[in-house]
Specification:
Helix 3 runs parallel beside helix 5. Strands 3-2-4-5-1-6-7 form a seven-stranded mixed β-sheet, with helices on both faces. The chain has six helices and seven strands. By secondary structure, the chain is α/β, with parallel strands linked by helices. It has a single domain, classed as Rossmann fold (3-Layer(aba) Sandwich). Its EC number is 2.7.1.156, 2.7.7.62.
């Protein structure tokens, strides 16, 4: 198993970097989109931009909260899964009123960590680097920052590679010797 966490700030180039790595993969590539579609023109434009950059040969799976099940089902030996992004996946555990679904999150988070440890596929995971600014004022935003920060740390511990992308430039944080 080869796992690689690619993190960075908003518009840092982390998705583009992950896509470049996926382009170099010899086997099948499955793009695992985690964002929930919304009735929002600017968000639709973001999705279209990501879609335009992907080769037509890549598969697409729009994952819901059950990301671990997708990795378990689709992660065949020789394949590459590009998961974009963990922050959008975490957003699926906040309901319409902004309430965090703790039990569902804890269950799916644990399942994701198990699935990543078990899959024979190569996996590229894109996530937002979080918490380099001031502590957010709202409780929901603080909860999001806390949970994504913890998830990033646990995923980074599992991954063979961790790369921080800033200004489109990758900086290796962890690599095999």
């Amino acid at each position: 198993m080869t796992t690689h966490l690619i993190t960075g700030g908003a518009r840092s180039g982390k998705s583009r970097y992950a896509e470049q790595l996926a382009l170099a993969h010899d086997g099948p590539v499955l793009y695992v989109a985690t964002a929930e579609r919304r009735d929002d023109d600017s968000f639709a434009a973001r999705i279209a931009h990501h879609r335009e950059r992907r080769p037509a040969a890549w598969g697409l799976h729009e994952a819901g909260p059950g990301l671990a099940a997708v990795i378990a089902a689709e992660g065949a030996a020789g394949s590459l899964l590009l998961v974009d992004c963990l922050g959008m996946w975490l957003m699926r555990f906040f309901d319409a009123d902004g309430q965090f679904q703790v039990d569902a999150w804890q269950r799916e988070r644990a399942a994701l960590l198990d699935a990543l440890a078990a899959t024979p596929a190569a996996v590229l995971l894109v996530s937002n680097e979080i918490g380099w600014g001031v502590v957010p004022l709202g409780a929901e935003t603080r909860h999001f920052v806390d949970e994504l920060g913890r998830l990033n740390q646990d995923i980074a511990a599992l991954c063979r590679r961790v790369t921080l992308v800033a200004c489109g430039q990758p900086l290796s944080l962890k690599a095999p010797a």
